[in-house]
Amino acid sequence: MLEQMGYAPWRQILLKSPEKHLGGTWTLLISLKSTDRTSSPKPCPCLRGLKTAFSGAFSTLTPAAPCKQAFFGVGTWNANGLFCISDYAKMCRKIKIAIKHIKKSSIFCVQEAHGNEALLQKHFRKVLLDYHVFSSFLSGQGSGGVLTFVSKKNASNRECINSEALVCGRVLKITISNPSFERSEQQVVYNVHIFGPDLPRMREFCGELELDIVSGGDNPLHRSLFVLGDFNFSNRGKFAFSEPVEVCGINDTLPPASRLLKSALAKLIEIDSQLPTRYDTIRDCGRKLDRVFCNLPPLVCTLVDWVISIPYCPKELYKSGMSDHTPVLASISKKANSDGILLRFPPEVYGHHLYGFFLDELCWREALHLNTGFEKLYLLKNLMRGAAELVRDHCQSVDCPEIWINSQTFRTMARIVWNQDHALAQSILERDVLAQTHLEIVNNKVMIKDFLLFTNESDAVNSVLAQQRGESLERQIGQTKANY
């Protein structure tokens, strides 16, 4: 029968003993609907592995949360005198703006509060029903003062949060720890307003910050670090409001204290809004002084979509008499779809020599030619993903997988740890040697054994893959030019 159909010898062998040659993926083919049906009211079901379910959303960024969270957001605002008691109407307007954005964030930091604990408890009494607040005020009410609000959804027990004023009225550090006996998971948040600190105090602060950077470097997913506030130095030129493009301004010479902090922050990743956050009244330009830094590794950052929000134009906010700084909000959220999302296959899958063969077999078995219209299109899309799934499973089953397979495995492991997906972790640990080298499940938590080794190997693999894809693209461009 196979000879009459004109199959090549290697295809005859493959169809006679598919379990041996396809590494157990033949069950995906026979699970499809029978080809004797002349119509397909329901296209073929999704094949295994096409969707990734969401489990354990943001358990890494909310170590003390009583339950799994689907949202995490941080925010910062230099209120330029939040409790300006000399103008009660203006103070009420500022407090209203602050409360509006506090409720949008899991952690919100305020600089230049200019007040005291009594004013804080009085005007934010309703907010404190849902948030913990930690403060550091200067002795005089006319300057300084930093506030950090932490949602009770992220840390219901105040005993799990430890606060420390590293520089009184300027730098406030809070540590949110896991309430379990291990206390191995924690989150450190620095609320920073760099204005006038001397060099000795800055050295002490930077030393504490670098210790947290080193401590979080061993496992940044379970010891996250966020540094946010008004740093009084920008990472780009000035934004002229009279011109539509970024323009170069006067190069401000940073004092030694600011240079020391800038060197320490260079070890972190900035969540950049690329928009001005402070209005310079002298030069009529905008500066980006309010910034957000985190220690999430690069491989995880490619899996996370941060939403950066600048709710007000700093110039318009200044004209309204509120502040010359605008709030900065950064958030991530999980979709409520429990079935997950369809993940893209790498381009190497569709260029593999077995892809066409698997697609032909699936189309023949599913009688694609008997369908018409959109029904045929929808079925073809499912079959194309099914063929890609078979190619990927085949490439993963070989003894020496290709570079793109290792790259996909590293991304999968990062996604597993980020989502704390125990089902997928157990599945990949049973069949993948590379995953067994880097992943482990300890106390019902999916963890990476050596994060430094994991990061170095993943960076090396992705660098080689990027080089190969670049060379392939150059060859395609060269062939296109030669044809014309």
Tell me what the structure shows.
With 484 residues, the chain is of the alpha+beta class. The protein has 2 domains: 14-53 and 339-483, no CATH class; 71-333, Endonuclease/exonuclease/phosphatase (Deoxyribonuclease I, Chain A), CATH 3.60.10.10. The chain has helices at 2-5, 9-16, 18-22, 26-30, 88-102, 117-123, 199-217, 256-265, 298-301, 314-319, 347-350, 355-365, 373-397, 403-419, 422-431, 433-438, 451-483; strands spanning 51-52, 71-78, 107-111, 131-136, 146-151, 161-167, 171-177, 186-193, 223-230, 238-240, 246-247, 269-270, 278-280, 285-287, 290-294, 307-309, 328-333, 341-342, 439-442, 445-448. A 6-stranded mixed sheet has the order 4-5-3-2-17-16, covered by helices on one side. Strands 6-7-8-9-15-12 form a 6-stranded mixed sheet, with helices on one face. Strands 11-10-14-13 form a 4-stranded antiparallel sheet. Helix 7 runs parallel beside helix 8, helix 12 packs across helix 13 and helix 14 (403-419) crosses helix 17 (451-483). The longest helix is centred in the C-terminal third of the chain and has 33 residues, at 451-483. 35% of the residues are buried. The model is unreliable at 1-57 and 336-340 (pLDDT under 50).
